[in-house]
Amino acid sequence: MADIILHQFYGSSASLRVRIALNLKGIAHGQVAWNLKKKEQKSEEYLKMNPQGFVPAIEREGKPILSQSLAIIEWLEETYPEPALLPKDIDERARVRAIAYAIACDTTPLLAGRIMRTLEVDLGADHDAQTKWFRMWVNDCFSALETQMNSNPATGKFCHGDTPTMGDLCIAAQVVSNERFGVDLAPYPTISRIFDNCMALQAFEKALPKNQPDAV
Amino acid sequence: MADIILHQFYGSSASLRVRIALNLKGIAHGQVAWNLKKKEQKSEEYLKMNPQGFVPAIEREGKPILSQSLAIIEWLEETYPEPALLPKDIDERARVRAIAYAIACDTTPLLAGRIMRTLEVDLGADHDAQTKWFRMWVNDCFSALETQMNSNPATGKFCHGDTPTMGDLCIAAQVVSNERFGVDLAPYPTISRIFDNCMALQAFEKALPKNQPDAV
User: Fold this and answer.
1) DSSP string of A172-184?
2) Which residues of chain B have pLDDT under 70?
């Protein structure tokens, strides 16, 4: 058994962030799939491990479960510092975290399966209304990030400098997730460029949903 | 002019988290209010500072603006390490961050003013439907956190040990925000106890919405 087991779902944006982080840091790990479409993350077995019923989670022999993708990524960063996913400088770390949280707090959670289902079932949102909802929040976020990044000399090949950081993990995972509802990236040349630079790296490519064993 | 200016709104949950952190660390600061009810955070003047158009943000003379409440709190923690808002141990830090993110990523953003307005205007959600939405996501989160915390010996007077951490800032801010739609805390004795312990501290009490100069 590997020292680290990643519990995940191929199509989950938060799982994708962690898969990229593990790949970038070159951390050998096992992988267990929980099919969100079959609500396996709400099974008794999974909830015993992670009461929130969300993927991803990290299991380690005889140690507490780690949950929440960003908490896992901070833990990976503190446990396996190289290559770094956060800059050393305190102000720069704040910039990268703010980019990550603009996506991981203010955007991706609004678009989760549980939210889209509630919009449909409780509020009668049809496919068009769901599409509008999805695109609106992504566009709100990406417009702001585009402005923040394209005018800032700290932006490089990636959102901060020329190596990928926690911010890029979140950007890449959101762009991949956009495929569900088709968000036009034309207004976001900086985000598009960063995404292309991410996808040129094997760590990102290998982490894509389609390249997971549980992909259907 | 103070070295640190907090741009905030008295009723914002994310602003409350940062006000508590500043108070706990005893950091002198100025405070500027932007009235979210008048959409002042979307004014040209504010957007020039923070293109995301969200509060809080921190302004410092000649240095970049800091945005995103959790990025600000991590920055405060790295800049003013005492008293610590994160444990020293890497596993324990991950636990605290996971508690914080369960609220700050997966819950609070679903309940923001912009979301509630969109539910009402685009999807015709009346007050009852909005109440159901609000309570559902808070209850989902609090049920899981209650299970995670009440069975874990790491939980103390606060969510992790006997001094407040980043997790408690998020718990307290969410409980305060619950007043908007009335969430029953009876099923959550651990969360209720932690909230009471938070509110017994002047740093939390002073940070409450009603105690801000911009409160109406």
Assistant:
1) HHHHHHHTTT---
2) 1
Q: Which residue of B has its CA nearest to A124?
A: B123
B4-8 vs B30-33, strand pairing mode: parallel
Looking at chain B, which residue has its C-alpha nearest residue A147?
B51
User: Contact B123/A118, CB-based, under 8 Å?
Assistant: no
Q: Classify residue B29 as exposed, middle or buried by CB count within 10 Å of its CB (0-12, 13-18, 19+).
A: middle
Chain A CB contacts of B94 below 8 Å = 66, 71-72, 74-75
Q: What ipTM score was computed for the predicted complex, to two decimals?
A: 0.98
Q: Do the Cβ atoms of A110 and B105 come within 8 Å?
A: no
Where does CATH 1.20.1050.10 sit in chain A? 90-204
8 Å CB contact of A144 and B53: yes
pLDDT at A1: 56
* Domain B4-83: CATH class, spelled out: alpha beta
Phi-psi region of B72 (alpha: psi -120 to 50; beta: other; left: phi over 0): alpha
Fold assignment, B90-204: Glutathione S-transferase Yfyf (Class Pi); Chain A, domain 2 (1.20.1050)
